[in-house]
What we know:
- This protein has seven helices and no strands.
- The chain is mostly helical.
- It is elongated, with a radius of gyration of 26 Å.
Amino acid sequence: MNLLGLLQTIIYTISSGLLYPVMALLVVLFVWMVVFAGGFFAEWLGRKRIKRNVDIAQYLGQIQREQKLPENVKMHLPPQVNVYVEKLVALLKENDDFLQEKVEALIQEKEMELSKEVDRIRLVVRVGPSLGLMGTLIPMGTGLAALSRGDMVAITSSLIIAFTTTVVGLALGILAHFFTTVKNRWVQEDIRNIELITEAMTRSIK
Length: 206
């Protein structure tokens, strides 16, 4: 066997062996997307219940004086922001020499936590269609080989796999892009509120 034929055999074997892992990953991603969608719509409903007609910037003076969130402001914020504020209030009561550094670390920790939620779903925007494309091209090679033998059953099976994996991959990409866009807007809004509240509460100690 010549070198070219050997390389073709190796590549074909590797490519064929990737089909089942690709299909398994698509199934796993689809199940994960269904679970994520449930949490997403639960958060969406929760945010819909929150009144959006209050601007945090208008209450910065009151927040600075009271060193806590007024109830009429707290009710307009999502749970993750309120949890952050509770940690900030507890931290400010410690009167530590490195208070500013610890506050900055707390902000960065919260921002990273919020960003990770978006990064996880953003990854599916690329991975889903890529797996769908792999699931399309791999069976096409098998189908062409079956075509040379005149095996119509194998060709049909390969085409079914190719088209269905493409559909699933594209569907994952579309859903992930939608979720990423909305989640990113939520995260930016939460980070803005976190930074404003932190600035108001820590101004007196600077």
